[in-house]
Design goal:
Elements lengths: L1 H9 L1 H21 L1 E13 L5 E4 L3 E9 H6 L7 E4 L6 E4 L4 H4 L6 E6 L4 E6 L1
Parallel strand pairs: 1-4
Antiparallel strand pairs: 1-3, 2-7, 3-6, 5-7
């Protein structure tokens, strides 16, 4: 019985080193892995003339991709889709959503958005 206890205590440093190495590799490779996430953000218009109104969905869902650490640090409450209403024509308009209209960091990519063909309507009062 005593020899078994000595054998177990001899392996403790090796077990601790193995645990630390395993955790280190998991942390390094896990955080650098590219992952995706769905977020819901508002659709905002600027340069809307007083004689016009815009009928559009309030929120859109976006699928974004990036490193796990970058996505964790991103606050979706600070994001919005910004559309220049001066570029809209009277009637229905098909929107194209780009990372520039959302002001996404370069390290985050826009993968998909839903609805895939968002339509807004510019109405003259």
């Amino acid at each position: 019985m005593e020899s078994r206890a000595k054998q177990t205590s001899r392996n403790v440093p090796l077990k601790v080193i193995s645990l630390l190495l395993g955790y280190t590799f998991w942390y390094i490779f896990g955080n650098s892995h590219t992952t995706t996430a769905w977020i819901t953000i508002p659709l905002c218009f600027y340069n809307v003339q007083k004689e016009n109104s815009v009928k559009a969905p309030e929120m859109l869902s976006l699928k974004i991709a990036g490193k796990r650490t970058v996505l964790r640090s991103l606050d979706a409450r600070d994001l919005a889709i910004h559309v220049d209403a001066a570029r809209l024509q009277e009637g229905k308009n098909l929107l194209t959503i780009t990372p520039e209209t959302i002001f996404l960091p370069e390290s985050i990519k826009l993968v998909h958005y839903s609805p895939s063909n968002p339509t807004v309507e510019l109405i003259k009062k």
